[in-house]
Design a protein that fits this description.
Blueprint (H helix, E strand, L loop, with lengths): L4 E4 L3 H12 L2 E7 L13 H4 L2 E8 L3 E7 L11 E6 L2 H12 L3 E8 L7 E7 L5 E7 L6
Parallel strand pairs: 1-4, 5-8
Antiparallel strand pairs: 2-3, 3-4, 6-7, 7-8
Organism: Candidatus Enterococcus murrayae
InterPro entries: Glyas_Bleomycin-R_OHBP_Dase
Protein name: VOC family protein
């Protein structure tokens, strides 16, 4: 299984909780830097102790995301985007809208051009600087 690993600037736990809510996911693992046994040669600041060293989030029918709070500053808009292909257009719209809250819509969710015009997609950078590509197959009625 491939799983994107997303680095955050101190907001990993907050982001994972939000993603779990949006995608009806489940946080499987969150270990904090404070969980590491004390080592006088490599002290951990009190601030860092409360940050996520490693987390894993299961997203039903989509896979999952791993991530952590980075020790060094992470620039927003890096070279990784996450694509979520959802079961229908209604679900895609709902999730896209939630991700766009306090984020930036890069490309609105809309019908793809031919030959892929039976599906929708859009791109949004969420409030944490993570770029999401949301897509779904349109339900076509022939009646």
């Amino acid at each position: 299984m491939l799983m994107p690993y997303v680095r955050f600037n101190g907001t990993c736990k907050e982001a994972f909780l939000r993603y779990a809510e949006i995608f009806n996911g489940e946080i499987q693992h969150l270990s904090m830097y404070g969980d590491i046994p004390e080592n006088p040669e490599m002290p951990i600041s009190e601030e860092l102790k409360s940050k996520v060293m490693h987390g894993q989030l299961l997203l039903p029918k989509l896979g999952g995301i791993s991530g952590a709070d980075s020790i060094s500053t992470v620039e927003k808009g890096g070279n990784v985007s996450i694509q979520a292909h959802l079961p229908n257009e209604e679900t895609a719209q709902k999730i896209f809208s939630k991700l766009a809250e306090a984020g930036v819509v890069i490309g609105p969710l809309g019908t793809n051009p031919p030959p892929d015009d039976n599906s929708v997609s859009g791109c949004v950078e969420d409030m944490y600087g993570v770029t999401w590509i949301i897509s779904a197959t349109k339900i076509v009625s022939y009646y």
